[in-house]
Amino acid sequence: MRLTAMKMNPKTVAVRRAALERGQKLKLPYAGALLPPDAYTLMQAGARLVDIRTQAELYWVGRIPGTVAVEWNSYPGGVLNLDFVNQLTEFIDREEPVMFICRSGGRSHHAAMAATQAGFTECYNVLEGFEGDRDAGQHRNTIGGWRAAGLPWVQG
Questions:
Q1: List of domains in the chain
Q2: Which of 23, 69, 70, 84 is deepest in the core (most CB within 10 A)?
């Protein structure tokens, strides 16, 4: 396990405060909710980003450099990873700020809840996820999300 101290500066303090306020408005049972650019700011300051998408999604859709990958469920079949928390503790200390990202923010909400219930002290969901919501043409990556925000990612 690796404990990373998050660098505190006015920008990271403001991002954490906004995430907390957003989380309170949404009545979330974890530390808060972040927009992708805010998650990137905290990641640059030392918070850990956990990508919970399947290995197939990471390979075919793209991945974020510097993340930890722990599947929430598997492909094909979508079987829930019952060992998720144990696998998470192999990479993340329970006292580290940890952010969860998936395709659009749904699975990562559940991962943040599970991690909080397991004793992780500062968990965040990355709203909009990696690909964002579908647009009018039913395509992702145009409305919201990590990729549409122009944040770093790689293919394959």
A1: 30-156 (3.40.250.10)
A2: 70
